[in-house]
Design a protein that fits this description.
The protein is 32% helix and 13% strand. It has 322 residues and is of the alpha/beta class. Strands 2-1-3-8-7-4-5-6 form an eight-stranded parallel beta sheet, with helices on both faces.
């Protein structure tokens, strides 16, 4: 089992994960559009603008929101089959020393990167999301992996999802930072205390706003850059942004980060010599008729990677946070 040690990246590999397997339908017959995000972001020249190599898409199984009797999750069987295939593609790039940018898809694609890293040692997770995604319901109901991806990635769930090849947990709670979340459930619906008791470094949006991005990211990196870790992975759910700037998500809640705040956070994290990859999730092109929001995300990534100063991009890139 190779043990990765992040350093100067050998270039960026873009991998598409056009999956909506972790999402519930918003109405009868609805098929969530997040699976179209990789194509929409590529259409705005993301690969060229990052000077990246495109490794193509890992096609996802067909969407079937009915609960899987084995796992209890919607699309559970499909997700169990998809995760190792996505992990193989990600792992091949990691083994070449490439930085991996995964274009989701929904938040369940986190499991592919998590498994790829777990197969290669012990790694950290920077979880940037508007929600805790650690929602254990009080009453039995069909579960959605996009609302439980942090729980699944840290070992809480059925073996078919959390223990592929006996690798569990993919990330230890003590190696995980939950950053800028503003919702961790309603106590009468889910076990919020379970999230609060978890050994994560909890940095809710109130802390980010009170202490500032620089201070809170510094605290996050002190946990993620520890010598016992082989590097860390970044998860970004774009619903961490305020819906005033990013409404094209399935759960838009007010009070999120401004575009400039997320750019600053990513620039800090990407500047770390220990970061191995990043995934972007939940953007729904069906809610972006003119492509303006896709361009907003591509511009955000372009500026953050350039500001990091490690990827061979011109740091003189300018952009209004539109």
């Amino acid at each position: 089992m190779p043990n990765l040690r992040a350093s100067a990246p050998g270039g960026i590999d873009v991998i598409g994960a056009p999956s909506n397997l972790g999402l519930r339908p918003l109405r009868p017959g609805h098929v969530p559009g997040a699976f179209r995000a990789p194509a929409a972001l590529r259409a705005h020249r993301l690969v060229d603008r990052l000077g990246a190599r495109d490794r193509g898409d890992v096609a996802a199984p067909a969407y079937d929101p009915s609960p899987d009797p084995v796992t209890g999750y919607r699309n559970g069987a499909g997700l169990a089959a998809y995760t190792p295939r996505l992990a193989e593609r990600i792992g091949a790039s990691l083994d070449e020393g490439r930085f991996v940018l995964v274009l989701g898809g929904d938040c369940s694609v986190l499991l592919g990167g998590a498994l790829a890293l777990r197969r290669r040692g012990r790694h950290g997770l920077l979880f940037i999301d508007g929600h805790s995604d650690f929602y254990f319901p009080h009453v039995a109901r069909p579960l959605t992996a996009a609302g439980m991806d942090l729980a699944l990635a840290t070992g809480h769930g059925p073996d078919a999802l959390v223990g592929v090849d006996g690798n569990t947990p993919y990330f230890a709670e003590t190696d995980t930072v939950v950053y800028a979340y503003r919702d961790h459930g309603t106590p009468d619906e889910v076990d919020t205390a379970r999230f609060e008791r978890a050994a994560f470094l909890h940095l809710p949006i109130e802390r980010v706003r009170a202490d500032g991005v620089a201070a809170t990211m510094g605290e996050a990196l002190r946990r993620l850059e520890r010598s016992e870790l082989g590097g860390f992975w970044i998860h970004v759910d774009v619903d961490v942004l305020d819906p005033a700037v990013m409404p094209a998500v399935d759960s838009p809640d007010p009070g999120g980060l401004r575009l400039a705040e997320l750019e600053d956070a990513l620039a800090f994290a990407l500047a770390s010599p220990r970061v191995l990859g990043l995934e972007l999730t939940i953007f729904d092109p069906d809610l972006d008729a003119d492509g303006r929001l896709a361009e907003r995300l591509v511009g955000l990534l372009e500026r953050a990677f350039a500001r990091a100063g490690r990827f061979g991009l011109a740091q003189s890139i300018q952009g209004v946070h539109r």
